């Protein structure tokens, strides 16, 4: 996962590292995205990443209730989770979404009034 640094680190760079690990004989996978919403992706959407790139198994690490995150509205979080789920279904993969819950006062609840 890229985590919070989606500026200096890229999905393409992360995928290249995973492919190198696989060449060394390790099992390695990628979560597309990062803290940002909408998530960063290699292709146009996270759904396409999951569907067309073997190493991509889901979306993450989407930050909620964290000072480094963007406090995305709940409909945007639902969109990310849906794209991950549908991409996973179509590619016969897990299609999970990984949420990072920070120490903000909202806890796991995203901004519902945004």
Structural class: alpha/beta
Radius of gyration over C-alpha positions, nearest whole angstrom: 14 Å
Major sheet attributes: 3 strands, parallel
Distance between the termini: 26 Å
Supply the number of helical segments: 3
Physical arrangement of strands within the biggest beta sheet: 1-2-3
Domain module count:
1
Note the beta-strand portion: 15-25%
Helical coverage, percent range: 25-40%
Low-confidence stretches: none
Mean pLDDT: 87
**What is the string of helix and strand elements?**
HEHEHE
Shape verdict: globular
Kindly state the number of beta strands: 3
Structural write-up:
- The protein is an alpha/beta fold and 114 residues long.
- The protein has one domain.
- It has helices at 11-23, 46-52, 74-91; strands at 30-32, 56-64, 96-101.
- The chain has a three-stranded parallel β-sheet with strand order 1-2-3.
- β2, α3 (74-91) and β3 (96-101) form a beta-alpha-beta unit.
- α2 (46-52) packs parallel to α3 (74-91).
- It is globular, with a radius of gyration of 14 Å.
Secondary-structure map with pairings?
Layout: H1 11-23, E1 30-32, H2 46-52, E2 56-64, H3 74-91, E3 96-101
